[in-house]
Every structure is written in structure tokens, then in C-alpha cells.
Design a protein that fits this description.
Rossmann fold, 5 domains, six-stranded mixed β-sheet, five-stranded antiparallel β-sheet, 21 helices, 19 strands, 55% helix
């Protein structure tokens, strides 16, 4: 299925380095057509097309590491065959039908597999069910061509007849040559080597002096001339007949292939559909392999206007750093209705452009049906346009300056920008006078804001940072920079503008302090103070962040301590309760002992049994009343559970009994085996599990010597059947 192209132009895709991603994906394809198609991947037009494709890639990705691996989808291209079907009176060769058979059988294998495991491959199966498959095409090829790529004997009656005659003539050639060899050998006309092969024909090695005594044709001689290679006259006649039969065989094969081609010609569109299906499977395979390589996931696609990238990686940078065994820093960024535009500032080489490209590239990848390297909790919406102004903006072809080119770009942005647009601009406003360029850039940004477009821009302009802080639904962000070591930290921090650290970086790179101080005097004092204030704010913010992290760690520690104390308290309570129960039990036993002691003394004094028994009986009744009665409900539940298990077992046993009865009845209905026919010399036979037919030449000790024309073999009699 070809992608419908979304309104994202080629230059935008190139500026986001999307073609480089496609080159990496295409390397995983196993067919040439799949490679070509993967390089043409474009973003989809509708969100309804994206989600099914992502599900298919996710299922394929899971199959690469799971147990139910998808069968191989490799095939040879049938583009040439499909082209020939469109030319009247064209005929395909045997190899072409072998390729067509490969395509049809591979398609059938995949369709059956996805149907069998549709619970695992829901979306791949639903996609595969669109294919209308018929086994008629495969069956027709198998009827005419065997697995070795030869036209079968029974492909037509005429071919069968020709090959029988060929077999007979070959037999006559063999017997006539053997007869001549024996005759001339006795007469000592032949050399010690007796015979050889010349032009694929058996010839006698005749001593040159006797060549006139032999009836036959000379086909060659030895280098010394002492030997003449002759074909006996009787063999020659049969050889000529054999050549004629070979010609007839080739003509009949051409006729069969012509008929087979005409049979397949109306199915050209169906075969095209099969091949396109296999190409799509190859592209899905490549997408899945690439997803596993970059650890891509299927994020939530939301209908709300929101982009939330959590722990997002730039895929090209990720793979490049993997090769170099270097760390890649992930970024988290969020755009929503309350925060539509983000202005990223900070020093050069801090990662601003990479962050910008990551947002755009991951958006384009997702809309092209590719899994992306983010946290699974990430959310993205659908944009019908992605506009970019990134990289070298000088147009040599149009002889435009950097600023003129950027102005043309901005004009396009103004025409196309709306609420469903994502715009990405690197170094916004540069290329002209800082004052004038910054003012114009500020005006453009206000227009984008009014149109409710979503966007990310990078800049060094202070007025743009101020505008972002003033607009309710825009925000500043900066790339973190260590003010002590003056090294980038590659971490995006939302909510605050970043200083360019211009003079600090210059000082670190060895520029004399006197020159830096002189430069500071040449610019407006307010700008230096403003940039310094931003730098100081960043330092304070960094310090606050460290303090906050420390407080959070302390809070977490306190929570864990509180939880531990609660658990300890609960354990102590349990122990106290158990001690209380033990104490109560002991007190009851002591009380009973005292009562028994009192009764025994009374009996010792008055010797009266009845009052003693009455008192003892009362004590027993009182103690029994304190014992809790065990509810019979528990026993009843256990009994019901056991009965259910017994019933289930009985049902399974009954099913097995019924199946056994059906199998016995079916066995009785089977026809009796065919009576074994006694075989004799001359019978045409074949092996029980074979298709080749031969003739019995000799029978010795329950073994038959079967002649297949080109060779003879001995086979056990019980393995043969009469044809």
C-alpha cells in the first residue's frame, strides 16, 4: 500500500535529515523492491492511516524477539514477467514461472501464518485479509513444471509420447553400440581404451589401419593420427532419430509454455497485488528492525493539540553515539494549548539545534508510521503541515543572500501557518542588522502566535526572549550551561531564558581580558547588564534546583523512615495483642483452678456428690458458651469446589470416550487394502512414494533391477508398485 503524501515538502524533510533515516531503514530490507520502496516513505495524509501502520510495525517488532517468528518473505522480482504479460504473443521461460510460483507460495504462507496466529498479529492479519488469494495459479505451475525447473512428462500427451520414444531410442543406441563394440573388440580392431565421447556421442576408438573395415562415420582422430573415432552405422541412424526427437521435444515445450503464459495473462493485476503485498511486508520488516535498533516505541496519539516528548532521543545521533560508545543525552519538551511556542536560548554548541531537530524529526517519523525513541508515556498529536527553517540558508541557485532567502521562507510561513501547523526555526531573525532583524522576527512571532500555531525556535535575541515571557501561551527555555567549567550540560530547562555567555566563553578560549573589557564598553551598557542578569538568574536557578533536589531526597528519606516506624509500630501492636490474649487465657485457667480448689474443699468437708456434680456441670456449660461456633459456610464452599472439579473431569473423560468411538467407527468404514500384484520382468513400475517410472530388467533375491532409461538401480520388491 503506497503512502499518501502529507503537505510536508521535500526541503523540510531534508532539513530534518529524514532521508538519512530512510537510508538506515532501507539497509534492513531483504529485497531490491523493498529497498526502493522504503526510500520513498513519506508522511501519511490522515491520522486514521498512521495508527494501523504503527500497530503493524509494533507487531512485527515483537515477532523479531518472540517465539512466533514471522516466516521469511523473500522473493525474486517478477517485474519483467508482469511487463511481458502486457505484450501480446509474448512467452515466458520456465525460470519466469518459477519466480511467479515463489511469489504466490510466499504470499500464501504469510496469509496462512497471520490467520493462524491472529490473536498475536491482529493488525497484520487484518491488513493481509485484504489480499484475494487463489491457489489456482500455484497449482497450474506445479502441474506443468517440477521442483527441479523441468517441464513435466505429463504436461501434455504429446510431450509424454515424445519422451517415451526418446527413452526407447536411447535404449536402442546403447544396445547397438554395445553390440558393435563387442564385435570389433573380438576382431582386435579397437585400441585399449575401446571407446570415448566426441560431441556428446559415444564413439569407437579404432586403430587407424582398420578404419575401412568398420561400417560407420568418422567423427575425429587422435593427435598422433594412430586412432580414429568412429560411430557405428546402426548407432548413427538411431542418433539422427534422437536429434529429431529432441527438436520435437523443444517445440512441444515451447507450445506448453505459450499456453501457460496465456493462462496467466488475465491474472496480471492479481500477481501485481501479491508482489506489492510482499514488498510492503519487507518494508514493515525493515521498519521493525530499525525500531528495535533505536528502541522505538508506540507513543500515545492524542486528538488534543499536544506534543509531549519524554526522554526523547535524536535517532541519528543515538546510533552514531552507539558506534562511538558515547552517551546520548535525552530531552523532554512539551507543547500544548497553554504553551504553544517555546523560545530556546543559550550558548552555541549547547544542543539547541539538536533539540529543535529532534522535535521535528520524531514528529515526521511518527506520521510516516515509524516507532520513535521516546518514553512510552510520551504523547503526540497530528500536524497537517511541518514548516522548517534550519541550516545553511544561502541559496546559490537563486543568487539570494542569507537574509533574502530567510525572508522568502518567512513569507511562505505566513501564507501556510495555522493552528494545525508545527513550525521549527533555527537562529530566528539572524542574517541582518540585529536591531532591525530582531524587530521583524518579533513581528513574525506575534503573527504565528495569533494564528495559534505550535512551534519551537532558537535565538540569541533578547527581544524575542522578552516577548516569550510576556505572551501568556508562550515560554522561554534554555540549554543548561555550567557557569564554572563553561561546558554545555545538554539539558533543556523550560521556564527561563538562557544567557549566551558570550564574554565568558571568549575568556575561556584565551581572548585577553583587556579586549573583552573593551568590547563590553562598545555596546550598550543595558544589554550587558541584561545578559549578565540572565546569567545570574540561571546560576541562582541552578542553585535552587540543587537545593530542591536535596530537599526532595531528604523528604523521601523521611517518608521511608516514617513508613519503617509505622511498620514497627504495627508489629509491636500485634505482639501486644498476642500477649494480652495469652494473659487472658492464663487468668481464665487460674480462675478455673481456684473454683475447682474451692469445690474440692467443700466435698472434703461435707462428702456430698450431687452439689459437687451440679457445680461442675455449671462450670462446663459456662465455658462451652464462650467457645465460638465455626460457621459451616466454609466447609460448604470447599465441598462445592470439589464437586465442580469432579464434574469438569467427568466432562473431559466423556469427550475423550466419544472421540474414541468415532475413530473406531471410521476405522471400520475404511476400504480394505488393495491386493498386492506379483511383479515380473518387463513390468513398468514406480516406487511407492515416487513419481519416476521404470522397467524391471532383472529380479534377484526379492530385489528388482529397474531401468529408468538414463540409469539402472536395484530396489526392494516390497517398495515397488505396478503402473
Amino acid at each position: 500500500m503506497e503512502n499518501k503524501t502529507v503537505r510536508i515538502d521535500e526541503k523540510t524533510l531534508e532539513s530534518l535529515e529524514f532521508p538519512l533515516v530512510l537510508q538506515q531503514i532501507s539497509a534492513y530490507c531483504i529485497t531490491q523492491l523493498g529497498t526502493e520502496k522504503s526510500l520513498r516513505i513519506h508522511p501519511y495524509l490522515n491520522i486514521s492511516d498512521i495508527e494501523p501502520e504503527l500497530h503493524r510495525v509494533k507487531e512485527f517488532s515483537a515477532s523479531l524477539t518472540g517465539d512466533n517468528g514471522i516466516p521469511s518473505h523473500g522473493f525474486e522480482s517478477i517485474e519483467n514477467e508482469l511487463y511481458l504479460f502486457g505484450i501480446e504473443n509474448s512467452t515466458l521461460e520456465v525460470i519466469s514461472f518459477r519466480r511467479i510460483l515463489s511469489v504466490t507460495q510466499t504470499t500464501q504462507t504469510l496469509l496462512k501464518f497471520f490467520k493462524k496466529f491472529e490473536t498475536f498479529y491482529i493488525h497484520l492479519n487484518s491488513f493481509s485479509e485484504r489480499i484475494t488469494y487463489t491457489s489456482l495459479l500455484s497449482e497450474e505451475i506445479i502441474k506443468k513444471i517440477d521442483k527441479y525447473g523441468l517441464v513435466r512428462n505429463d504436461a501434455s500427451e504429446e510431450l509424454s509420447s515424445i519422451r517415451r520414444r526418446l527413452k526407447q531410442v536411447k535404449g536402442k543406441i546403447g544396445s547397438s553400440f554395445t553390440k558393435a563394440l563387442s564385435q570389433y573388440l573380438q576382431q582386435d580392431y579397437l585400441d585399449d581404451i575401446k571407446e570415448t565421447i566426441v560431441d556428446n556421442r559415444r564413439v569407437l576408438a579404432v586403430k587407424a589401419m582398420y578404419r575401412k573395415k568398420i561400417r560407420g562415420t568418422v567423427l575425429g582422430s587422435s593427435k598422433t593420427g594412430s586412432l580414429v573415432y568412429m560411430e557405428p552405422q546402426e548407432t548413427l541412424e538411431y542418433s539422427n532419430e534422437l536429434s529429431n526427437l529432441y527438436y520435437e521435444e523443444q517445440e512441444e515445450i515451447k507450445k506448453i509454455l505459450k499456453e501457460l503464459t496465456e493462462f496467466f495473462r488475465p491474472y496480471k493485476s492479481l500477481l501485481t497485488e501479491y508482489q506489492n503485498y510482499l514488498i510492503t511486508i519487507d518494508v514493515l520488516y525493515a521498519k521493525a528492525k530499525y525500531a528495535n535498533e533505536i528502541e522505538g516505541v508506540f507513543p500515545l496519539i492524542t486528538s488534543e493539540r499536544r506534543v509531549y516528548l519524554k526522554e526523547a532521543f535524536h535517532p541519528l545521533l543515538l546510533l552514531a553515539n552507539k558506534k562511538r560508545k558515547e552517551r546520548t543525552f535525552p530531552q523532554s519538551i512539551e507543547l500544548n494549548q497553554n504553551n504553544r511556542i517555546i523560545v530556546i536560548s543559550g550558548p552555541n554548541a549547547g544542543g539547541k539545534s539538536i533539540t529543535l531537530k529532534t522535535v521535528g524529526l520524531l514528529q515526521v517519523m511518527l506520521q510516516s508510521g515509524l516507532l520513535i525513541p521516546v518514553d512510552s508515556l510520551s504523547e503526540l498529536c497530528f500536524f497537517d503541515r511541518v514548516l522548517t527553517d534550519i541550516g545553511d540558508n544561502q541559496s546559490i541557485e537563486n543568487q539570494l543572500s542569507t537574509y533574502s532567502y530567510r525572508l522568502k521562507k518567512m513569507n511562505q510561513f505566513l501564507k501556510k501557518c495555522k493552528s494545525t501547523t508545527l513550525f521549527l526555526i533555527d537562529e530566528f531573525g539572524t542574517g541582518s542588522d540585529p536591531e532591525l532583524g530582531g524587530a521583524l522576527a518579533e513581528t513574525f512571532l506575534e503573527v504565528f502566535y495569533e494564528r495559534k500555531a505550535f512551534g519551537v525556535i532558537t535565538t540569541h535575541y533578547a527581544n524575542l526572549k522578552l516577548l516569550a515571557s510576556e505572551l501568556p501561551n508562550a515560554a522561554n527555555a534554555n540549554m543548561q550551561f555550567d557557569s564554572q567549567s563553561l561546558e554545555p550540560m545538554y539539558q533543556l530547562q523550560l521556564g527561563e531564558a538562557g544567557s549566551s555567555f558570550t564574554f565568558e566563553v571568549a575568556q575561556k578560549n584565551g581572548i585577553p581580558y583587556s579586549l573583552i573589557n573593551k568590547a563590553k564598553k562598545k555596546i550598550e551598557r543595558g544589554k550587558v547588564r541584561f545578559d549578565k542578569s540572565i546569567a545570574n538568574l540561571q546560576k541562582e536557578r541552578s542553585q535552587l534546583r540543587k537545593t530542591s533536589e536535596s530537599l526532595k531526597a531528604e523528604e523521601q528519606k523521611a517518608r521511608e523512615q516514617s513508613k519503617y516506624l509505622e511498620e514497627t509500630n504495627a508489629k509491636i501492636k500485634d505482639k501486644l495483642e498476642s500477649y494480652q490474649e495469652l494473659y487472658d487465657s492464663n487468668q481464665r485457667i487460674i480462675s478455673l483452678g481456684k473454683k475447682l480448689d474451692s469445690l474440692s474443699r467443700q466435698f472434703h468437708n461435707n462428702k456430698k456428690k450431687k452439689p459437687l456434680l451440679d457445680e461442675l456441670f455449671k462450670m462446663v456449660l459456662v465455658e462451652n458458651s464462650k467457645i465460638k461456633k465455626v460457621a459451616p459456610a466454609v466447609k460448604k464452599k470447599e465441598k462445592i469446589k470439589k464437586l465442580k472439579v469432579i464434574k469438569e473431569v467427568e466432562k473431559k473423560v466423556e469427550v475423550i470416550r466419544k472421540r474414541k468411538k468415532i475413530e473406531k467407527a471410521a476405522a471400520k468404514k475404511l476400504p480394505p487394502p488393495k491386493p498386492k500384484v506379483a511383479l515380473k520382468i518387463g513390468d513398468r513400475v514406480r516406487m511407492l512414494e515416487g513419481i519416476a517410472i521404470g522397467t524391471i530388467d532383472k529380479i534377484e533375491k526379492k530385489k528388482a533391477f529397474v531401468n529408468y532409461g538414463t540409469f539402472t538401480t536395484n530396489v526392494s520388491m516390497i517398495e515397488l508398485e505396478k503402473v
